[in-house]
Amino acid sequence: MGSPFALVLHTHLPMVLNHGRWPHGSDWLCEAVFECYLPLLETAHRLVADGISPKWTVNLSPILTEQLASPEFQTELSFYYENVRRACVESRDHFDRGGNKEIVRLTSFWEEFYERMWEMHRRIGGDIPGTFAELQRGGHIEIITCAATHGYLPLLGRDESIHLQLRTAVETHRRHFGRAPRGIWLPECAYRPRYEWTPPTGRERGRVRWVRPGIEEMLAAHGLEFFVADAHLVSAGRPMFLYRDFMPFKAAQDEPASSVPGTEARSPYAPYRVASRGGTGTTVAFIRDPKTTLQVWSRERGYPGEYAYLEFHKKHFPGGLRFWRITDNSGDLGRKVAYDPALAVQKVGLQARHFVELVQSTLAAAGAGGPAVVCSPYDAELFGHWWFEGSLWLEQVAREMARVGVTAATLSEALAGVPPRATLALPEGSWGEGGDHRVWLNRDTEWTWDRIYSAEAEWAALLAAARGPKGDLARALTQATRELLLLQASDWPFLITTGTARDYAERRVAEHYAEFKRLFEMARGLASGEPLSPDDAHSLRRLEREDFCFPDLDPAWGMGPPGRG
């Protein structure tokens, strides 16, 4: 194989169905489908039709997959499509009255775009997960998993919670894609080695300590062979928090955070076996390449900041359509000029060629001493959502790589061709601001972790006491487990810290915690022989309908992998 290039797309949104629509709720999911997921599938199909196998590694998070496979999603997407079609017509009338012919032409551009994506959706029978699975069966992509609801694994208070996140992820992946995943995207690339742990907040902080296994040990127990880690964990370099370019970040530097110990500089262009405290290590870490990552992620220094590209932040209301290009770096939305799709396409071709040249030179330098791998991981929503031209750029990169002979490989293929060089003990860290946990744990979010830790303790105690529950008790315990999983999503503290949708995220934490508490009391009463009251029966049915994810969920999955649970 030689030295391959591995593109990794992390595809995730939290549970938003049945939890609002606009400005925060199911519209997020529908927007991502039209602007990112369907364009990615369209791009992959075009490449395959032309004899080019993209060889992407795609993480479809379990909670996103559950939503995309649900009837509720189909209803919401149809409603969203009708809204954007109406927005095109109304915007055309508005700008036509003002004599702005450039914008009028762009309303037709958007109308054609949404019609094409809707036709793509119709052609695949509305089955986005199944279409990704078909590409995997053809050998064109590899689908890996993520923690069930994108729980921030290093900060979860109990090993049972991590087992629950991982076992639910593996079982959900198998149900949707017909096979168990080989690899996982650790939420926020967050890793914790084995050490004596104490809760970082709450009543037990500093009072209770116990040795907890490293994340790599937990992954191996569930048959997960590899994950992606951030470059600063092996290269001793500065972490890059590139979300800054797309959304605000206001957390103070002195807020609670886990420090990242210094580490001997190692090459990011090799996979490594990971082992805490000198263990043998069976789980492999691929390392994020800082060069290609910065070139693609950064709006300030990378391709998405090209002045000809569509401006993400300026929208026309009502309707929310975007008609302007970035234009300059002034940040003044009033100075933006009309978008020119043809000019943007030209820039995409130039930047795709530049990127492939960068990959070639990086591989040549890294592979001087033997086979190397350039691992370039990104949030999939970057391509098409934050960076509208991103999916077209991915297509041009794949075509250019095929033309010049750069080997593209999935992570499993890369691992087969580039064996791990050594065994490392990774320090704790993430791909967030500061390379540690401060984005997810700070003064603004401590209260969310207090609730998570409280719920975890009550859930674990009930799980241990209610062995083999049946009937309404089993239903109540299972739904309480769903609410715990949804409460643990890393999205909520992230949105609180960045201020992107703080009120919504705070409400979701409060709601899932309140629903968990109600279900916990319900299950405790049932376990003691009390009948289910009519009000409780109604609440249980409502929550089973609204928070419908993981229909085969077994609370005992929190006890460990198969053979232990």
Query: What is the beta-strand fraction?
Result: 5-15%
**CATH architecture designation of the largest domain:** Alpha-Beta Barrel
Q: Which structural class should the secondary elements be placed in?
A: alpha/beta
Mean pLDDT: 92
**Integer count of domains:** 2
Give the strand order of the largest sheet, numbering strands 1, 2, ... along the chain: 4-3-2-1-10
Question: Could you name the ranges where pLDDT drops below 50 across 5 or more consecutive residues?
Answer: 239-247, 251-263
Write down the CATH class of the largest domain. Alpha Beta
Question: What are the secondary-structure elements, in order, as H or E?
Answer: EHEHHHHEHEEEHEHEEHHEHHEHHHHH
Report the count of strand segments.
11
Report helical residue fraction.
Answer: 40-55%
> In CATH terms, what is the fold-level topology of the largest domain?
7-stranded beta/alpha barrel
Spatial extent as radius of gyration:
24 Å
